[in-house]
Structures are given as C-alpha cells and as structure tokens.
Amino acid sequence: MIVGIGTDVCDVRRIRETWARRGERFAERVLGPSELRVFHARRARVEARGLSYLATRFSAKEAFSKAIGLGMHMPMAWRACEILNLPGGQPVLRLHGALAAWFDARGLVGHVSVSDETDYATSFVVVETRDPALRDHGPSRPDPAPPDPA
Length: 150
Prior knowledge:
This protein is α+β, with helices and mostly antiparallel strands. Helix content is 41%, strand content 26%. It has one domain (2-134): CATH 3.90.470.20. It is built from five helices and five strands, in the order E-H-H-H-H-E-E-H-E-E. The radius of gyration is 15 Å and the shape is globular. Its cofactor is Mg(2+).
C-alpha cells in the first residue's frame, strides 16, 4: 500500500550558484559518503556532470522527505539518505542511522526516479509498506543494501 508520494524539481543553475559560493561544504552537507565519491569522480571528469549529479540528489532527497511526510526534520537528514545506482543504473535509496531505523520500524520501502536536463533536475519518490499485512505490526526483513557505485 502506498503511504506517501513526493516529487521535486530543482534548478541546476541554483545548485551551480550555491556551489560557487559555498564549494565543497555544500556538497558535504547534502551528500552522504558514497554519493560524495561519485560526485567527486563525475566532477573531476566534467564539472557540469558533477553539478547535475548534486542537483539530482538534492531533488531526490527533497522528494523523499515529502513522501515520508517529515520534510527536513529529524530523523530525516540530508546525509542519512543516499540515492545510489545499481550496476544497471537504477537509482535506489540507502538510508542510515536513525532515519533507517525509523523507516524500517514502519515496514516501509521506497522507490526513486531521477532525471536531469541542462537547467533542471527532477525526482519522484513513492513510499509503500513492505508487506500490507504487517502495516501496523512492525517491519519485515530489511531489503539487502545495494552495492556501492564504485
């Protein structure tokens, strides 16, 4: 059963301007450890590609915070939510710490889609119960963690 839907559109130019003012501190505030590795690798090859990656992750985290109904309030935190890619390219959510515990305690699973063009990044997140029969009776077994994008 779907318990939340979130969407977000992010102006990549705004992310570029924030990056110009705050630099690495901005990326370190928004991206988790695995995302930071991908960001640095993409940015080293082509600056615009790295900034687009940062924009899609910013957008996806905003959409996720809307889908779970918390906004950017604890246990939701920028770095506690990572959007990584499986080997085939599919984006997946990887949650950490208190956010992961909160999410698992409710038996939730999330699905994310991201896209970007020159000026805009967009994302869509659907959160549903892992097993409708367990909706109010605690979490089922957690899904295995996706592999690192390295």
